[in-house]
Amino acid sequence: MIKEAVEASSISKILGITPTLPGEPEHQYQSSLRALIDELDAKTVLQVYLAEKIHDCIWWIQRYENQKRATIIAEMAALTNGHYTNNVTSTQAHIRDALMQNKIDQKSQEIMQAVGHTAESLRQKAFEKKRLLLNN
């Protein structure tokens, strides 16, 4: 007999699991989990649990992809710092924001041009510098 659908977060809450990291949108996690549970038509406690585990795997893969992207963008921004200091300059912050939003404005283009790069060459150089880190 099929039991009544279990609330998406109930199993995680019962076990005291916090699936998101600081800065990650809990509502987005719960929304995408609910969508997967609905798509899989999970009804029993075991079905919901398995859906949660599948969702956790997908969430971690997405988190890893986001982190790789952020690593490359941070390196691209660092490459625009002509002084090569460890401090994040306003120039780096501007470039990082523009790249994270995929919106290269005129100021960003001027910054990249001043250090002899384009968005493509910055990306290539950043991948080159972070190759070993990203391959692990």
Averaged pLDDT, please?
A: 81
Q: What proportion strand?
A: under 5%
- Radius of gyration, rounded? 21 Å
Number of individual domains: 2
Shape: elongated
Largest sheet: none
Q: What is the succession of H and E elements?
A: HHHHHH
Instruction: Please report the total strand number as a whole number.
Output: 0
* Assembly level: single chain
Number of separate helices: 6
Range of helix content? 55-70%
Distance between the termini: 46 Å
Broad structural category: mainly alpha
Low-confidence stretches: 1-9
Give the gist of this structure.
By secondary structure, this protein is an all-alpha fold. The chain has helices spanning 10-15, 26-40, 45-78, 90-100, 106-114, 119-135. Helix 3 (45-78) packs across helix 4 (90-100).
Question: What report would you give on this structure?
Answer:
- The termini are far apart.
- The chain has two domains: 10-66, no CATH class; 67-135, no CATH class.
- With 136 residues, it is mainly α.
- It has six helices and no strands.
- Helices cover 68% and strands 0% of the residues.
- Mean pLDDT is 81; it is low at 1-9.
Using brief descriptors, characterize the structure shown:
136 residues, mainly alpha, elongated, disordered N terminus
